[in-house]
Amino acid sequence: MATRMREAKRFAIRCPVTVHLSNGPNHKVKVQGVLYDIGVDGALLVLEQPVPPGTKVSLFVHFRGPEKQVTTIHFEGFVERLHEEPRFEIAVSFQGTGRFLQKRLSDLHAKKAASTDEAS
Questions:
Q1: What secondary structure, in 3-state letters, does 4-42 show?
Q2: Which of 43, 47, 63, 44 minimizes the C-alpha distance to 104?
Q3: What is the pLDDT of residues 20-30, one digit of tens each?
Q4: Is 79 within a domain?
Q5: Helices H, strands E: what count in the chain?
Q6: In the chain, how many domains are there?
Q7: Strand pairing partners for 74?
Q8: What is the pLDDT of residue 104?
Q9: Could you tell me if 34 and 46 are in contact, meaning their C-beta atoms sit under 8 angstroms apart?
């Protein structure tokens, strides 16, 4: 897979990420890490273990809002490159756009409804 030049502006954001990758039909791996920057076309992450270029990944970015609530956005992509020193830093290019996880949004709406009922 050819590495392409970064096409869009990136934003430096430090927050936790969970990366799911598949090593076959019955073997899924979940790796924790930290997001370093993100843009509409990809992201730069530091992970606990190496992930080779070309690997298809599901990236779950856990943003913390000003009220300390966590919003998770899911991205699909491919690992473009890996730097192993001094840590496992990977660049991911996205396929399509990110999406909010429906369960998280449902939980948020349920909490708002409960707080509205309590206030009544």
A1: CCCCCCCEEEEEEEEEEEECCCCCEEEEEEEEEEECCCE
A2: 63
A3: 987 666 667 89
A4: yes
A5: 1, 7
A6: 1
A7: 60, 99
A8: 46
A9: yes
Kindly state whether residue 103 falls inside one of the protein's structural domains: yes
Model confidence, pTM: 0.71
Domain of residue 61 covers 11-119
Contact 18, 60 (CB under 8 A): yes
Task: Report pLDDT for 80.
Answer: 94
Q: What is the pLDDT of residues 82-97, one digit of tens each?
A: 999 878 999 999 987 7
Beta-bridged to residue 113, according to DSSP, are: none
Distance, CA of 119 to CA of 91 (rounded, Å): 46
Residue 5 lies in a domain: no
Q: Is 21 part of a structural domain of the chain? A: yes
Q: CATH number, domain at 35?
A: 2.30.110.10
